[in-house]
Amino acid sequence: MKHHFRRQGWVAGLFALLVALFILTKFIQPNYGAGDLGSLVRAVLPYAFAVAAQTVVVIAGGIDLSVAAMMALTSVTAASMMAGASEEYALLVVPFVLAMGFALGAVNGILIVVSRVPDIVVTLATLFMLQGAALLVLGAPGGGAAEWLKSLVVGTIPLPGLPDSVTAWIPKSLVLLVVLLCIVWIPLNRSKLGLSIYAIGSSELAAFRSGVPVARTKILAYAFAGLFAAMGGLSLTMSTGIGAPIPGPYLLASVAAVVLGGVALGGGKGSLLGPIIAVFVLRLVRTDLTLLAIDPNVTAIVEGSIMVAVVMFGAFITMRSRSS
Amino acid sequence: MLKKKLVGALLASAALAASLGAASAEAPYTIGVSNTVQGNGWREEMICAIKAQALASGKVDKLNIAHRNTDAAGQAEDIRNLISAKVDAIVVNPADPAGIKDALAEATKAGIVVVAVDQAVTEPSAYIISNNQEQYAYLGAKWLFEQMGGKGNVVYMRGAAGASADSDRDRGFKKALAEFPDVKVAQETFTGWQQDQGKQQILDYIATGVPFDGIWTSGIDNVIVDALVESQATLVPVVGADNAGFVGQLQSVEGLKGAAVTNPGSIGGAGVTLALQILEGQKPAEQTVLVEPELWENATDAGKEKLKTAADSSLSPEWPVSISIPNWTTYSKEQIVACKGPGE
C-alpha cells in the first residue's frame, strides 16, 4: 500500500511540476494560449512514443538502444511508400509499418533471448543495423505523407456540446497520443502478459520459478517497444511530411524521460503515465528557455541540470519516507 | 447605460489592440533564429553574423536564438516556440527544405516575416537569401577540371545527403562535368560537412592506392590538404571554400595548387538585413535573393594577390574569411568576432 502511494506520489509530484511550469510559461509569455499548447503536443508526439517504447522494455528489466534508429527506419519506410501514392494507399501503409515495428522489436527480443548477450549489446548492434537499413531505404531526407495522415496532428477536434473556447484546448495531436497509448497500454497492463513483464523485470529467476514464460515475455516486451517506436516513426512522418534516415535525438531523451518519470532502470517498477508527463515537462522546459531567449549554448546545460535536480530530489524524498 | 459602457469598453480595447498591433510592427524588433547544426565553424560564423548585424542595425532590441543539433521535427518545435514568443521575424537555416513547411506557414500566418538563409525551403511565403550554391560548385569544378588538363579522375567530396545546398551544388558540379567528357568521378562521398568524417574518407581512399588527379570538396577542405601532406600522397589540385585555414594553406603549403570559392557564413547577417527591410515595407522584387560566389586561386599571380588580401590568420581556421557581404552587412570585423548581439 505504502509502495503504491509512493509511486502515485511521484507521478503526482511530476504533474504538479508540469502545472507549475505551465503557470511559469503563462507568466513569461502572457499570450501563451491554446494554439501554443497544440504546438507543444506536436513536439511531444515523437518523444512520447519513444519513451513509451523505452518504458515497456525498462520495466521488463532491459534497455533498448535501437529506439531512435527504429523510428528513423519506420519513418523513411512510411515516407517512401507514401511518396506519390494515393491517399487510400496510406491506409495500408500505416498497419504495414506498425507490423514492421512489432516484428523488428520481436527480432531484438529473440536475439537477446537466444544469444544470451546482454540487452545493451544486442540493441547497440541493431541500432547500427537499423540505421544502415534506413539509409538504404532513403539515402537522403525525402518521401511524402498522405494529407489525411498529416491532418491528424493539426488543429483541434470539435466536440458536440462543448463550446469552441473549450475544444480549442483539446488539440487533435493530444487526443491521438492519448488514444494510441491507451489502446496498447491499458489492455497490456491488465493482461497476464503485463503482469509477467513486471515480474521478469523485478526478478527473472523468481519469475521463472513461479512459472512465468520468461523468454516469451521478454520477446513480446521488445515487440511492443517496436510497435511504439513505429508509432513514433509515423508521427515524425506525419509532422514533417517526409522521412529522414538519420535518427533524431530520441534515444537519450527517452532514457531521460523514463528516469524522470519514476521508472526504475533496474526494472519491475513504474508505469507509463510518469514518463509521458516527464516528456511534457522536458519539452515545456525547452519552450520556456526559448521564450526567455536564454543563450542557446546554455540551454542544454539547464535542461540536464533540471533533470538531475528533480531525480535527486525525488530520491531524497523516497529515502526520507522509507526511513521514517 | 450599461450597453453604452460595454460598447465603449469594447471600442477602447479594440483601439488598444490596434495600437498594440501597430507597435509590434515598428522598431525595435525581436528576431528569432533557428539553426540545427551546432559546433560547425561555418554555422558559428553565421550565428555571429546574425548577432553582429542585429546589433549594428540598431533596430533590433532582442534576439531569440534556438541553436541546437536536431532534426526537422525538432526545428519545427523550435519555430513554433518562436511563434509563441511572438517574434517579429524568423531567420532560419532549414534542416530540410520540405520538413518544416507547416511550421513556416504557421509563422507567416501569425504575421511573422520568415527568411531562410543559406538553403532554400519549399514554403512559398518564406523569403530566401542564399549563396548561389549551383554557381559555387560550377566555378570550382570548372577551374579544377581545367587544372587537370580536362582529363583524369576526380574525388568528389560532397556535403550532407539531402540538404538542399548539397543538391544545388551537385547540379553545378554535374554541369561542369558535362563540359569535360574526359573527367571521371573516381569516388563520391558524403562528408556530412564534418571535418573528421571528410578526413577519414580521404585517408581511406588514399590507402586503396587508386590514383586520382584532383579533389573537389564541399567546404571540408583544410583537413583534406592535411591528409595529403601527412600521408605524403601526390599533391593534386584541391578545391574548397574560403575557410580561413584553407586560404592559409593555399599560400603556405609548398606545391599545393588549389582554389577557394567564397561561401560567406555572413549570409546570416544578410538574412537579418533582408528581414528588417521587409518589416519596414521594402519587399524584394523576387522571393529568392542570391549572393554570387567568387573564386580565388593560387595558380596565377592575380589570383595569389586576391588570396593574400583575403587571408586572415586571426580568424578561426574553420571560419570563412569573407566575414561580410557588401550591401548586405554593415557590422565591423570586431563586432562579428566578438559575436555579441543586442543586450549582451
TrEMBL record, chain A:
Report the domain of life of the source organism: Bacteria
Q: Name one GO molecular function term.
A: transmembrane transporter activity
Keywords from UniProt, A to Z, are: Cell inner membrane, Cell membrane, Membrane, Transmembrane, Transmembrane helix, Transport
> In which compartments does the protein localize?
Cell membrane
Report the InterPro entries cross-referenced here. ABC_transp_permease (IPR001851)
> Which Pfam family is one of this chain's hits?
BPD_transp_2
Membrane topology value = Multi-pass membrane protein
What start-end ranges are recorded for coiled-coil regions in this protein?
A: none
**Which residue ranges does UniProt annotate as crossing the membrane?**
9-28, 40-60, 91-114, 121-146, 166-188, 219-242, 248-265, 300-319
Q: Name one GO cellular component term.
A: plasma membrane
The job of this chain, per UniProt, is described as: Part of the ABC transporter complex LsrABCD involved in autoinducer 2 (AI-2) import. Probably responsible for the translocation of the substrate across the membrane.
Self-association or partners: how does it assemble? The complex is composed of two ATP-binding proteins (LsrA), two transmembrane proteins (LsrC and LsrD) and a solute-binding protein (LsrB).
Q: What is this protein called?
A: Autoinducer 2 import system permease protein LsrD
Q: Which species?
A: Pseudaminobacter soli
Automatic annotation (TrEMBL), chain B:
Q: Which UniProt keywords apply?
A: Signal
Q: Which InterPro entries match?
A: Peripla_BP_I (IPR028082), SBP_2_dom (IPR025997)
State if Signal is listed as a keyword: yes
Query: Which GO CC terms are listed, alphabetically?
Result: cell envelope
Note the superkingdom of the native organism.
Answer: Bacteria
Signal peptide (UniProt feature, chain positions): 1-27
Cellular localisation: Cell envelope
Periplasmic binding protein domain location is 31-283
Q: Does the keyword DNA-binding apply?
A: no
One GO MF term: carbohydrate binding
Family under the similarity heading: Belongs to the bacterial solute-binding protein 2 family.
The protein's name: ABC transporter substrate-binding protein
Native organism: Pseudaminobacter soli (ex Zhang et al. 2022)
Q: What is the lineage of its organism?
A: Bacteria, Pseudomonadati, Pseudomonadota, Alphaproteobacteria, Hyphomicrobiales
